[in-house]
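Lecture 7 notes: from sequence to structure.

We start with a single chain of 90 residues. Read the sequence below before looking at the structure.
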Amino acid sequence: MVSRQVDLDMHVQDVVTVLEYEDLREVVLVGHSYGGMVITGAADRAPERVAQLVYLDAEAPRMGRASTTYCRQRSGRDTRRRSGWRGTDG
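Now the structure, written as tokens:
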């Protein structure tokens, strides 16, 4: 079902809830595309449970940047590319 209540915050909370409910620790979270924003938020909310983040063809958000900023970049107004495993600017 499509709803305005389903947003980035809900996706992040879903991941955090699973980590807590299953009492998972030392987890490697992998995010693809928009999932990069989700795993970043989950790691921010539950850092004691996350060992590593892997961005698979995903934007690795920078401190202080909102997800809406990344949506604008993906629309073509920002032509910077990221290269390399660590997502360095290229």
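The chain has three helices and four strands. Keep this in mind for problem set 3.
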